[in-house]
Amino acid sequence: MIELIELTKAYGRVRAVDGVTFSAVPGRVTGFLGLNGSGKTTTLRMLLGLSRPTSGRALINKVRFQDLTDPARQVGAVLEQGISHPGQSGRAHLTTQALLIGVDRARVEVLLEQVGLAGAAEQRCGDYSLGMRQRLSVATALLGDPQVLILDEPANGLDPEGIAWLRELLRDHARSGGTVLISSHLLAELAQLIDDVVIIAEGTVRYAAPLSELYGSASARLRIRGRDPQRLWRAFEEAGATVDTDGYALEVIGLTPEDAGDIAFEAGVPLYELASDAPNLEQIFLNLVAGDAPAPTPVTAPAPDPGSPPAAELFPAPAHLIPIPSETPIPSEAQPSSEAPPSSEGPPSSEGPLLSEAAASPERAASPGTDAFSESAAVPESAATMTTTQEGDR
Ligand SMILES: Nc1ncnc2c1ncn2[C@@H]1O[C@H](COP(=O)(O)OP(=O)(O)OP(=O)(O)O)[C@@H](O)[C@H]1O
User: Fold this and answer.
1) At what angle do helices 257-266 and 229-238 cross, to 10 degrees?
2) Is any atom of ligand 1 closer than 6 Å to the C-beta of 37?
3) Where do Pro residues bias regions lie (predicted)?
């Protein structure tokens, strides 16, 4: 279980993360979505004890990362893209990490199989493709068989087969009671992987709900043409739908295609067209993260508006195709916000994938009160392979 409560990080006047509150729960894969510079990495770094919050709390299984008793066995994390020394083989990298966290070497072989790198285990990591490096990162995160997985942009560089592999892996993890939090800057990339979605923009959460709600709201718009549009309009409104038109077809929100077809049938109006707009996830996402996010559109239809214009005025003849307005329905929880640019790169020496080794380092977990995570002196030599960057580097 991951809980972020009013989590805030200010760098001078910049509030990189501003009052972020959400949970990622066991049994579900939660997507953490935001454009570059929106505050994802800063949030994850605070969650992983690598950066001290200005205020608020970030908890894993009810405690701060630094207070976990056996972090490597409880949390597996990949922050940013990276691998071990490029001259090291995938197997050698995993073996080193396994030794660091006290995991049996046999698990290395299991994981190489699981992530599809068994055939490339002896290949130099430096020769791995981006997708292979992602697989190696995920394997490293899984070394300690942790219940909580935190992955920053894990789908980056994966081909469709890789995405399918990652989906299965994360679903399996969630099915067995694991908690998964993964970030991305592309909703479409995450859409196949996640159950819940949290959208962050300019350091604030704009939307947090099951992905199905986002889909539900997006797919609620029907485009309908029939012989008697006025009668259809009335019938749909009487059924509680919101009806509009582009001058050619009716645009109906709040009915399923089945309902709309039945209503038209009962009204005795032959239909010529009934289409459900495919959800344009990227457009929804962009609307949600836009500084001037549009007013939320209710997922369910509001009561019929007695002031609706007469349908007869809305169907000029001759009818011709007019582009459907690009306005996208937005779920009801949009919130306000602030701003932010891209994250920094890690230093050359910090190429290793993940936090498994950080999790294994007692130094990192020690001294609550000090910002151990931002002081390289407190990081053991092994942490040179971490992907994470120190605050001072930014
Ligand atoms: N150490 C730092 N000092 C000053 N500003 C910082 C620091 N770290 C991050 N920021 C700023 O905080 C904001 C959020 O950055 P962050 O890296 O968290 O975004 P992100 O969503 O992870 O972006 P990306 O997808 O590009 O990694 C940005 O404006 C960034 O410049």
Assistant:
1) 120
2) yes
3) 296-309
Q: Whose CA is nearest to atom 4 of ligand 1?
A: 11
**DSSP assignment of 236-257, as one string?**
HHHTT-EEEE-SSSEEEES--H
185 lines ligand 1 (CB under 6 A): yes
CATH class of 220-314: alpha beta
Residue to probe by mutation, ligand 1, list 40, 343, 345, 374, most atoms within 8 Å of CB? 343
pLDDT tens digits along 264-284: 999 999 999 999 876 667 777
With the most atoms of ligand 1 within 8 angstroms of its CB, the residue from 11, 374, 390 to mutate is 11
Measure CA 103 to chain center.
Answer: 30
If you average pLDDT over each of 129-143, 277-291, 327-341, which comes out highest? 129-143
- φ/ψ (deg, to 5) at 76: -115, 135
ipTM: 0.95
Q: At a CB cut-off of 8 Å and minimum separation 6, what does 93 contact? A: 83, 84, 85, 125, 136, 140, 352, 385
Looking at ligand 1, which residue's alpha carbon is closest to its atom 27?
343
161-192 per-position pLDDT tens digit: 888 889 999 999 999 999 999 999 888 778 88
Nearest CA to ligand 1 atom 11: 16
The CATH H-level superfamily of 2-203+340-393 is P-loop containing nucleotide triphosphate hydrolases (3.40.50.300)
Residue 227, ligand 1, Cβ within 6 A: no
Q: Which residues contact 316 (CB under 8 A, 6 or more apart)?
A: 247
Residues recorded for the chain: 394
Please state, as a whole number, how many other Cβ atoms lie within 10 Å of the Cβ of residue 153: 22
Ligand 1 centre from 54 Cα, in Å?
15
In tens, the pLDDT along 59-99 reads: 999 999 999 998 888 999 988 655 567 888 999 999 998 99
Confidence of residue 347 (pLDDT cuts 50, 70, 90): very low
